[in-house]
Amino acid sequence: MLSGTMKNRESIQEPRFDYYNHEVSDIDLSDCEFPHVIEIYDFPQEFRTEDLLRVFCSYQKKGFDIKWVDDTHALGVFSSPITARDALGSKHTMVKIRPLSQATRAAKAKARAYAEFLQPAKERPETSAALARRLVISALGVRSKQSKTEREAELKKLQEARERKRLEAKQREDVWEGRDQSAV
Known about the structure:
There is one protein chain. This protein is an alpha+beta fold. Among the domains are: 37-114, 2-Layer Sandwich (Alpha-Beta Plaits); 129-177. It has 6 helices and 4 strands. The protein has helices at residues 2-5, 49-55, 81-89, 105-113, 130-140, 148-177; strands at 37-41, 64-70, 73-78, 96-99. Strands 2-3-1-4 form a 4-stranded antiparallel β-sheet. Strand 2 and strand 3 (73-78) form a beta hairpin. The longest helix is centred in the last third of the chain and has 30 residues, at 148-177. InterPro entries: Nucleotide-bd_a/b_plait_sf (IPR012677), R3HC1/R3HCL (IPR039884). Residues 164-184 are annotated as: Disordered.
């Protein structure tokens, strides 16, 4: 009875999405998204991190790091956009460089995926083992084998570092507020 009332019809439904011819759209990174990152490319496959660091040795003190994309592409992470722009203006014989906005799809994808690790490179601050030594000694309940002069020298070094940090913060604030630096 049911078969008599319904017409036997076949219909082919067209797929909504064509998965066979899918193209990944180009990752759009504007210049303002990662202005401190550049793409380093077209260098020999034999290059290692040390070789790239040697090429950009003049930026080491200002803060510079390498993140690899593949054998012939890497991302150069600088401490500031100004330093990155300066590096883009320089010519290198063994490598080519360009802004991340003009980089390959793989480099842009790597930058997107590792965005939290591409923060501007900063030098590690001076450290001291004094606190760690004190914590370990107190936890173990033993006496320190460090002489009084060594402890005093370490304490003096820490105080100098604190004073230097305080002075740098004051100078930054003075510059920001437009105060005269020559009076300091």
